[in-house]
Amino acid sequence: MGDEGRQDERQDERQDDRPAERDAPAGEVARGAGFAVAPGTLKRPGVLVAMPFDRALLARFKDTFPTARWRRKLRRWFVPGTTAEQRADAWIAREISSLDAYGDDKGRDAYAFEPLESPYLTAGAEALLVRTPYSRTVVDTLRTIPFAAWAPEIRAWRVPWRSYEALKEVWDGIEEAARSSEPAARRARREAARDPAAEAERRRRRHPVPRADPPPLGAAVEVAQAGVVVFEALDDAPVAETAALAHYPGITADGPLVWGWWRIPTPAEIADTVPAAAPDAPGRGWWPATRAGLEERLRRLRETARAQATRAARTTREKGAQEKSARETTARHKREPAESRSR
Questions:
Q1: Domain boundaries, the chain
Q2: Whole-angstrom distance, CA of residue 159 vs CA of residue 290
Q3: Model pLDDT, residue 23
Q4: pLDDT tens column, 74-129
Q5: How many other CB atoms sit within 10 Å of the CB of residue 73?
Q6: Alpha-carbon torsion 108, 114, 115, 118, what sign?
Q7: What's the 3-state SS for 266-310?
Q8: pLDDT of residue 232
Q9: Which end of the chain has the smaller Cβ count within 10 Å, N or C?
């Protein structure tokens, strides 16, 4: 008997009608009607699928996912691939639709009776479309709705009508998170949190450090206010601006402090830095860079590089459009006298 035959026998003996909660893997989400999915791992991308056992259902599953393998300990089918969750959700949606052929009609009737009115929700012919500013809360909430899926071609979440009741239950939280993620709301929060004096101090790119225990020059270290930085120079004289020290409340080291002058590290310097397990002495104002600090600095460097590339591309396009317009204007002016003489 082949591997697949033995695999079917083992599942016949051990797969229950519904997933056992005690065996449920981390992150598993119920999709209804006995179906559930759980994410794979970074090392092995894919999705774990639990479903009610039925020979015909199992045959359809294996026809759709020929590379799926039965995980005996988890009592789940593992479907490999980076897009496995989307493909599994689409297959589950089709199977459940065959169980409840009128599920979408029921959802449309419920919407007609008690509609959700929101600028973030559009009622389409085949599904409800949710468009909001980016919010991790919105994304995490929509992922809990059965069969909801991100549609990159229209940049919206598509929620089938059969999931309208589930969407209605969590809509208040989605709408609140979307409103707080609007650009105007973000700007208002930033303005409310602004401290002009602290911003001016940060732009000076200096940090007080103990004279007796200064950071190593040229190496990536971490400070509370600026994250991972590289100190390039240290003053000899103690800090005389006591008012400026108010912006560095975390420094509790004894002895005189001096100004250390820093810069942002390069990606190569970050890659060459061995991360520390944890801050060893935060009270002195600096400590060896941790893994979290290095990753955050690298993320910000990448964001800055992308923003610069976007601005450069926009400038190039605008310059090209201006040059094209100037050429067209020049050519038109040259044609006009020739047309006048011909007339």
A1: 3-99, 103-184, 197-295
A2: 41
A3: 59
A4: 889 999 998 999 999 999 988 877 766 677 888 899 999 999 999 999 998 888 99
A5: 7
A6: negative
A7: CHHHHHHCCCECCCCCHHHCCEECEHHHHHHHHHHHHHHHHHHHH
A8: 94
A9: C
Q: What DSSP element (H or E) covers 123?
A: strand 121-123
DSSP strand pairing (257-263 vs 149-151): unpaired
Would you say residue 20 has pLDDT above 60? no
Which residues, in sequence order, are bridge partners of residue 130? 121, 157
Q: Which residue is listed with tokens 């007796």?
A: 212
Calculate mean pLDDT across residues 242-266: 87
Cβ-proximal residues to 318 (8 Å cutoff; 6+ apart), any chain: none
Amino acid symbol at 38: A
Strand intervals (E) in the chain: 29-32, 35-39, 46-50, 69-71, 76-80, 121-123, 127-130, 149-151, 156-160, 206-210, 220-223, 227-234, 257-263, 287-288
Q: What 3-state class would DSSP assign to 63? A: helix
* Cα distances (angstroms) measured from residue 297 to each of 227, 230, 257, 276, 280: 7, 12, 26, 15, 19
Nearest to 294 by CA among 281, 279, 310, 280: 279
| Phi, psi values for residue 159, rounded to 5° | -115, 115
Whole-angstrom distance, CA of residue 281 vs CA of residue 275: 15
Identify the pLDDT of residue 342.
61
Q: Whole-angstrom Cα distance, residue 102 to residue 96?
A: 11
Model pLDDT, residue 100: 67
What residue has token string 């002016």? 333
Alpha-carbon Rg for the chain in angstroms: 30
338, two tokens = 């020739």
The Cα–Cα gap between 250 and 227 comes to 14
Written as six digits, the tokens of 337 are: 């006298």
pTM over 0.70: no
- DSSP for 177-224? HHHHTSHHHHHHHHHHH--HHHHHHHHTTEEEEETTSPPPTTSEEEET
Beta-carbon-side half-sphere exposure of residue 27 (alpha carbons within 13 Å): 11
Instruction: Please state, in angstroms and as integers, the Cα–Cα distance from residue 291 to each residue in 98, 271, 297, 305, following that order.
Output: 49, 11, 10, 21
Quickly tell me which residue has 């007339």 as its tokens: 343
Distance from the first to the final alpha carbon of the chain: 93
